[in-house]
Specification:
2 domains, 5-stranded mixed barrel, Spore Coat Polysaccharide Biosynthesis Protein SpsA, Chain A, single chain
Protein backbone atom coordinates (compact mmCIF):
# COMPACT_ATOMS: atom_id res chain seq x y z
CA UNK A 1 0.00 0.00 0.00
CA UNK A 2 1.33 3.39 -0.98
CA UNK A 3 0.23 6.62 0.69
CA UNK A 4 -0.24 9.72 -1.45
CA UNK A 5 -1.29 13.24 -0.51
CA UNK A 6 -3.53 15.63 -2.42
CA UNK A 7 -3.24 19.22 -1.20
CA UNK A 8 -6.21 21.39 -2.16
CA UNK A 9 -4.87 24.84 -3.05
CA UNK A 10 -7.44 26.49 -5.28
CA UNK A 11 -9.15 28.87 -2.87
CA UNK A 12 -9.32 32.62 -3.42
CA UNK A 13 -9.11 33.69 0.22
CA UNK A 14 -10.99 36.92 -0.53
CA UNK A 15 -11.51 37.74 3.15
CA UNK A 16 -7.76 38.21 3.67
CA UNK A 17 -7.42 41.05 1.16
CA UNK A 18 -5.23 43.10 0.87
CA UNK A 19 -2.44 40.71 1.97
CA UNK A 20 -4.03 38.14 -0.32
CA UNK A 21 -4.34 39.18 -3.96
CA UNK A 22 -5.50 37.49 -7.15
CA UNK A 23 -1.87 36.72 -8.00
CA UNK A 24 -1.04 35.68 -4.42
CA UNK A 25 -4.00 33.95 -2.77
CA UNK A 26 -4.17 32.86 0.83
CA UNK A 27 -2.19 29.62 0.48
CA UNK A 28 0.94 31.60 -0.47
CA UNK A 29 0.78 33.85 2.60
CA UNK A 30 2.86 33.66 5.77
CA UNK A 31 0.22 33.92 8.47
CA UNK A 32 2.44 32.78 11.31
CA UNK A 33 6.05 31.65 11.23
CA UNK A 34 8.59 31.63 8.42
CA UNK A 35 6.72 29.42 5.94
CA UNK A 36 3.72 30.05 3.73
CA UNK A 37 0.59 28.06 4.48
CA UNK A 38 1.13 25.73 1.54
CA UNK A 39 4.76 25.19 2.50
CA UNK A 40 3.59 24.18 5.96
CA UNK A 41 1.07 21.77 4.39
CA UNK A 42 3.84 20.14 2.35
CA UNK A 43 6.12 19.89 5.39
CA UNK A 44 3.35 18.17 7.37
CA UNK A 45 2.60 15.79 4.50
CA UNK A 46 6.23 14.66 4.45
CA UNK A 47 5.80 13.23 7.96
CA UNK A 48 3.55 10.42 6.68
CA UNK A 49 4.10 10.41 2.90
CA UNK A 50 7.09 10.18 0.56
CA UNK A 51 7.82 13.55 -0.99
CA UNK A 52 7.47 12.16 -4.51
CA UNK A 53 3.89 11.12 -3.67
CA UNK A 54 2.70 14.60 -2.69
CA UNK A 55 0.42 16.28 -5.24
CA UNK A 56 -1.21 19.70 -5.34
CA UNK A 57 -4.41 20.62 -7.14
CA UNK A 58 -5.00 24.27 -7.91
CA UNK A 59 -6.51 26.56 -10.49
CA UNK A 60 -4.99 27.15 -13.90
CA UNK A 61 -4.97 30.87 -13.12
CA UNK A 62 -2.39 30.23 -10.37
CA UNK A 63 0.17 28.58 -12.63
CA UNK A 64 2.47 31.63 -12.59
CA UNK A 65 2.03 31.98 -8.83
CA UNK A 66 3.31 28.45 -8.28
CA UNK A 67 6.31 29.14 -10.52
CA UNK A 68 7.06 32.22 -8.42
CA UNK A 69 6.24 31.17 -4.86
CA UNK A 70 6.87 27.40 -4.97
CA UNK A 71 9.56 27.00 -7.65
CA UNK A 72 11.15 23.85 -6.25
CA UNK A 73 7.99 21.74 -6.07
CA UNK A 74 7.90 19.08 -8.85
CA UNK A 75 5.92 20.53 -11.74
CA UNK A 76 4.64 17.09 -12.73
CA UNK A 77 2.91 16.82 -9.33
CA UNK A 78 0.85 20.00 -9.72
CA UNK A 79 -2.60 19.35 -11.16
CA UNK A 80 -4.26 22.39 -12.70
CA UNK A 81 -8.04 22.65 -12.85
CA UNK A 82 -9.09 24.37 -16.10
CA UNK A 83 -11.49 26.49 -14.02
CA UNK A 84 -12.91 26.41 -10.50
CA UNK A 85 -15.93 24.12 -10.02
CA UNK A 86 -15.80 23.59 -6.22
CA UNK A 87 -14.27 20.74 -4.28
CA UNK A 88 -16.19 17.73 -5.61
CA UNK A 89 -14.79 18.29 -9.10
CA UNK A 90 -11.36 19.24 -7.75
CA UNK A 91 -11.04 16.16 -5.54
CA UNK A 92 -12.22 13.88 -8.33
CA UNK A 93 -9.75 15.30 -10.85
CA UNK A 94 -6.95 15.16 -8.29
CA UNK A 95 -7.62 11.61 -7.13
CA UNK A 96 -8.24 10.36 -10.68
CA UNK A 97 -4.90 11.83 -11.80
CA UNK A 98 -3.11 10.21 -8.85
CA UNK A 99 -4.79 6.88 -9.61
CA UNK A 100 -3.34 6.91 -13.14
CA UNK A 101 0.16 7.43 -11.73
CA UNK A 102 0.05 5.47 -8.47
CA UNK A 103 -2.81 2.95 -8.59
CA UNK A 104 -4.65 1.83 -5.46
CA UNK A 105 -3.05 4.27 -3.04
CA UNK A 106 -4.44 5.73 0.15
CA UNK A 107 -5.03 9.41 -0.66
CA UNK A 108 -4.75 11.89 2.21
CA UNK A 109 -6.70 14.93 1.02
CA UNK A 110 -5.76 18.13 2.85
CA UNK A 111 -6.69 21.81 2.48
CA UNK A 112 -3.65 24.02 1.93
CA UNK A 113 -4.56 26.87 4.22
CA UNK A 114 -5.31 26.02 7.86
CA UNK A 115 -2.92 26.90 10.66
CA UNK A 116 -2.09 23.76 12.66
CA UNK A 117 -0.15 23.51 15.90
CA UNK A 118 0.84 20.21 17.49
CA UNK A 119 2.38 18.59 14.43
CA UNK A 120 3.30 15.35 16.21
CA UNK A 121 -0.32 14.76 17.20
CA UNK A 122 -1.46 15.75 13.71
CA UNK A 123 0.79 13.09 12.17
CA UNK A 124 -0.40 10.44 14.65
CA UNK A 125 -4.04 11.24 13.85
CA UNK A 126 -3.43 11.05 10.08
CA UNK A 127 -1.61 7.74 10.47
CA UNK A 128 -4.56 6.36 12.43
CA UNK A 129 -6.90 7.53 9.67
CA UNK A 130 -4.69 5.87 7.04
CA UNK A 131 -4.80 2.63 9.03
CA UNK A 132 -8.61 2.60 9.11
CA UNK A 133 -9.04 3.72 5.49
CA UNK A 134 -6.83 0.81 4.42
CA UNK A 135 -8.32 -1.79 6.75
CA UNK A 136 -12.00 -0.87 6.57
CA UNK A 137 -12.22 0.36 2.96
CA UNK A 138 -14.14 3.40 4.19
CA UNK A 139 -13.74 7.16 3.78
CA UNK A 140 -12.29 8.73 6.92
CA UNK A 141 -12.45 12.36 7.93
CA UNK A 142 -10.70 14.33 10.67
CA UNK A 143 -12.91 16.12 13.18
CA UNK A 144 -11.74 18.90 15.49
CA UNK A 145 -13.12 19.45 18.99
CA UNK A 146 -14.92 22.84 18.91
CA UNK A 147 -13.35 25.57 21.01
CA UNK A 148 -16.22 28.02 20.45
CA UNK A 149 -19.61 28.39 18.78
CA UNK A 150 -18.67 28.81 15.12
CA UNK A 151 -21.09 29.46 12.26
CA UNK A 152 -18.33 29.45 9.65
CA UNK A 153 -17.56 25.72 9.87
CA UNK A 154 -19.50 22.57 9.09
CA UNK A 155 -19.89 19.95 11.81
CA UNK A 156 -19.70 16.15 12.02
CA UNK A 157 -22.22 14.34 14.22
CA UNK A 158 -20.58 11.27 15.71
CA UNK A 159 -22.13 7.87 16.33
CA UNK A 160 -20.42 5.12 18.36
CA UNK A 161 -16.71 5.06 19.17
CA UNK A 162 -15.05 2.02 17.56
CA UNK A 163 -11.49 2.62 18.74
CA UNK A 164 -9.94 4.60 21.55
CA UNK A 165 -6.42 3.30 21.88
CA UNK A 166 -3.49 5.65 22.46
CA UNK A 167 -5.94 8.50 23.13
CA UNK A 168 -6.79 8.61 19.41
CA UNK A 169 -10.53 8.04 19.18
CA UNK A 170 -12.23 6.79 16.03
CA UNK A 171 -15.98 7.09 15.55
CA UNK A 172 -18.57 6.06 13.06
CA UNK A 173 -20.18 9.11 11.47
CA UNK A 174 -23.87 9.66 12.06
CA UNK A 175 -24.23 12.69 9.76
CA UNK A 176 -22.65 15.85 8.43
CA UNK A 177 -24.12 19.24 9.28
CA UNK A 178 -23.73 22.27 7.05
CA UNK A 179 -22.72 25.59 8.61
CA UNK A 180 -25.31 26.15 11.36
CA UNK A 181 -26.94 29.38 12.42
CA UNK A 182 -25.81 31.01 15.67
CA UNK A 183 -28.49 29.43 17.87
CA UNK A 184 -27.74 25.94 16.59
CA UNK A 185 -24.00 26.52 16.84
CA UNK A 186 -24.34 27.64 20.47
CA UNK A 187 -25.99 24.32 21.29
CA UNK A 188 -23.86 21.82 19.37
CA UNK A 189 -20.52 23.41 20.21
CA UNK A 190 -21.15 22.24 23.81
CA UNK A 191 -22.17 18.73 22.69
CA UNK A 192 -19.28 16.22 22.71
CA UNK A 193 -20.92 14.24 19.89
CA UNK A 194 -20.22 17.08 17.44
CA UNK A 195 -16.84 17.98 15.95
CA UNK A 196 -15.82 20.60 13.43
CA UNK A 197 -15.44 19.31 9.90
CA UNK A 198 -11.80 20.08 9.09
CA UNK A 199 -12.07 19.29 5.37
CA UNK A 200 -9.37 16.61 5.72
CA UNK A 201 -10.33 13.28 4.16
CA UNK A 202 -8.43 10.00 3.93
CA UNK A 203 -9.59 7.25 1.56
CA UNK A 204 -8.47 4.66 -0.93
CA UNK A 205 -8.39 6.17 -4.39
CA UNK A 206 -10.58 3.34 -5.68
CA UNK A 207 -13.12 3.86 -2.89
CA UNK A 208 -13.70 7.57 -3.42
CA UNK A 209 -13.71 7.25 -7.21
CA UNK A 210 -16.27 4.45 -6.96
CA UNK A 211 -18.49 6.64 -4.78
CA UNK A 212 -18.14 9.53 -7.21
CA UNK A 213 -19.02 7.35 -10.18
CA UNK A 214 -22.09 6.03 -8.36
CA UNK A 215 -23.36 9.15 -6.60
CA UNK A 216 -22.17 11.91 -8.97
CA UNK A 217 -21.96 10.12 -12.29
CA UNK A 218 -22.17 13.24 -14.45
CA UNK A 219 -19.34 14.92 -12.56
CA UNK A 220 -17.24 11.75 -12.65
CA UNK A 221 -17.65 11.27 -16.41
CA UNK A 222 -16.86 14.90 -17.16
CA UNK A 223 -13.76 14.79 -14.96
CA UNK A 224 -12.52 11.69 -16.80
CA UNK A 225 -13.15 13.41 -20.14
CA UNK A 226 -11.34 16.51 -18.88
CA UNK A 227 -8.35 14.43 -17.79
CA UNK A 228 -8.15 12.80 -21.22
CA UNK A 229 -8.34 16.17 -22.96
CA UNK A 230 -5.53 17.51 -20.76
CA UNK A 231 -3.38 14.44 -21.47
CA UNK A 232 -3.83 14.94 -25.21
CA UNK A 233 -3.13 18.68 -24.90
CA UNK A 234 -6.66 19.68 -25.97
CA UNK A 235 -6.85 22.43 -23.39
CA UNK A 236 -9.79 24.32 -24.90
CA UNK A 237 -11.87 21.14 -24.86
CA UNK A 238 -10.71 20.43 -21.32
CA UNK A 239 -11.88 23.85 -20.15
CA UNK A 240 -15.21 23.53 -21.95
CA UNK A 241 -15.84 20.08 -20.46
CA UNK A 242 -14.79 21.02 -16.93
CA UNK A 243 -16.78 24.26 -17.02
CA UNK A 244 -19.97 22.28 -17.58
CA UNK A 245 -19.63 20.47 -14.23
CA UNK A 246 -22.16 21.54 -11.62
CA UNK A 247 -20.52 23.26 -8.64
CA UNK A 248 -20.76 21.06 -5.55
CA UNK A 249 -18.66 20.62 -2.44
CA UNK A 250 -17.22 17.19 -1.72
CA UNK A 251 -19.18 17.21 1.54
CA UNK A 252 -22.52 17.73 -0.20
CA UNK A 253 -21.74 15.57 -3.22
CA UNK A 254 -20.40 12.53 -1.38
CA UNK A 255 -19.82 12.64 2.37
CA UNK A 256 -23.35 13.66 3.38
CA UNK A 257 -24.79 10.88 1.26
CA UNK A 258 -22.70 8.03 2.66
CA UNK A 259 -24.21 5.67 5.21
CA UNK A 260 -20.87 4.32 6.40
CA UNK A 261 -17.84 6.50 7.04
CA UNK A 262 -15.45 7.13 9.93
CA UNK A 263 -14.09 10.13 11.80
CA UNK A 264 -10.86 10.39 13.76
CA UNK A 265 -10.89 13.09 16.41
CA UNK A 266 -7.98 15.47 16.02
CA UNK A 267 -6.74 16.72 19.37
CA UNK A 268 -4.43 19.35 17.95
CA UNK A 269 -4.86 23.09 17.46
CA UNK A 270 -6.48 23.83 14.11
CA UNK A 271 -7.78 27.07 12.66
CA UNK A 272 -9.01 27.77 9.16
CA UNK A 273 -7.92 31.43 9.46
CA UNK A 274 -10.56 32.43 6.97
CA UNK A 275 -10.43 36.07 8.00
CA UNK A 276 -8.41 38.66 9.91
CA UNK A 277 -10.62 38.23 12.97
CA UNK A 278 -9.04 34.79 13.37
CA UNK A 279 -5.63 36.36 14.05
CA UNK A 280 -6.62 36.80 17.70
CA UNK A 281 -6.69 33.00 17.89
CA UNK A 282 -3.35 32.56 16.14
CA UNK A 283 -1.51 35.33 18.02
CA UNK A 284 -1.81 36.05 21.75
CA UNK A 285 -3.59 39.37 22.39
CA UNK A 286 -2.10 41.87 24.85
CA UNK A 287 -3.80 43.02 28.06
CA UNK A 288 -6.09 45.34 26.09
CA UNK A 289 -7.16 42.54 23.74
CA UNK A 290 -5.08 43.94 20.86
CA UNK A 291 -3.11 41.93 18.32
CA UNK A 292 -0.19 43.85 16.81
CA UNK A 293 1.75 42.54 13.81
CA UNK A 294 4.48 44.56 12.12
CA UNK A 295 5.61 48.11 12.87
CA UNK A 296 2.72 49.87 14.59
CA UNK A 297 1.68 51.70 17.75
CA UNK A 298 -1.67 51.65 19.54
CA UNK A 299 -2.78 54.26 22.09
CA UNK A 300 -6.00 54.10 24.11
CA UNK A 301 -7.16 51.29 21.84
CA UNK A 302 -8.91 48.02 22.75
CA UNK A 303 -9.84 44.72 21.12
CA UNK A 304 -8.22 45.75 17.85
CA UNK A 305 -6.12 43.87 15.31
CA UNK A 306 -3.43 45.74 13.38
CA UNK A 307 -1.34 44.03 10.71
CA UNK A 308 1.27 46.18 8.98
CA UNK A 309 3.10 44.10 6.39
CA UNK A 310 5.07 46.98 4.85
CA UNK A 311 8.58 47.28 6.29
CA UNK A 312 8.93 50.90 5.12
CA UNK A 313 5.69 52.18 6.64
CA UNK A 314 4.27 52.77 10.12
CA UNK A 315 0.70 52.47 11.38
CA UNK A 316 -0.63 54.32 14.44
CA UNK A 317 -4.11 53.79 15.90
CA UNK A 318 -5.52 56.01 18.65
CA UNK A 319 -8.77 55.96 20.61
CA UNK A 320 -10.35 53.06 18.76
CA UNK A 321 -12.13 49.87 19.77
CA UNK A 322 -13.17 46.70 17.96
CA UNK A 323 -11.62 47.45 14.57
CA UNK A 324 -9.22 45.74 12.18
CA UNK A 325 -6.49 47.61 10.28
CA UNK A 326 -4.43 45.93 7.57
CA UNK A 327 -1.73 47.69 5.57
CA UNK A 328 -0.04 45.87 2.70
CA UNK A 329 1.67 46.95 -0.53
CA UNK A 330 -0.09 50.23 -1.18
CA UNK A 331 -3.53 49.24 0.12
CA UNK A 332 -4.96 49.84 3.57
CA UNK A 333 -8.13 48.19 4.86
CA UNK A 334 -10.07 49.36 7.94
CA UNK A 335 -13.33 47.79 9.06
CA UNK A 336 -15.26 46.76 12.22
CA UNK A 337 -14.04 43.62 13.89
CA UNK A 338 -16.34 40.66 13.25
CA UNK A 339 -17.59 42.04 9.93
CA UNK A 340 -15.22 40.03 7.74
CA UNK A 341 -18.00 39.07 5.33
CA UNK A 342 -18.18 42.64 3.99
CA UNK A 343 -14.73 42.36 2.38
CA UNK A 344 -16.17 40.25 -0.44
CA UNK A 345 -18.69 43.01 -1.20
CA UNK A 346 -15.89 45.58 -1.04
CA UNK A 347 -13.79 43.69 -3.59
CA UNK A 348 -16.75 43.39 -5.96
CA UNK A 349 -17.27 47.15 -5.71
CA UNK A 350 -13.57 47.88 -6.28
CA UNK A 351 -13.60 45.70 -9.38
CA UNK A 352 -16.73 47.43 -10.67
CA UNK A 353 -15.03 50.79 -10.18
CA UNK A 354 -11.94 49.70 -12.10
CA UNK A 355 -9.56 49.53 -9.11
CA UNK A 356 -8.24 46.18 -10.37
CA UNK A 357 -4.54 47.01 -9.82
CA UNK A 358 -5.17 46.69 -6.08
CA UNK A 359 -6.89 43.31 -6.38
Amino acid sequence: MQVTTLIMAGGKGERVWPIGRQSKPKQFLKIKGKHTLIEDAIIRAKTFCDEKNIFIITGEKYRDSFDKFLPNFPKENIIFEPTGRDTAAAVTLGVYTIEQKIPNSIVVTLPADPVIEGEAMFTTVIQKAIEHANRDNLPVTIGIKPSRAEIGYGYIHLADCISGKENIKVFRVDSFLEKPDQDKSNIISEDASYLWNSGMFIWKSTVILSHMEKLQNDTYNKVVATYNYIKSDQLDNAKKEFSSIEKKSIDFAIMEKLTNSLCVRGDFKWDDVGSFSALSRVYTPDNQGNVKIGDNFLLDTENTIVMNNDSDSFVAVCGMKDIIVVNHKGATLIYPRGKDHIIKDLLAELEARGKTKYL
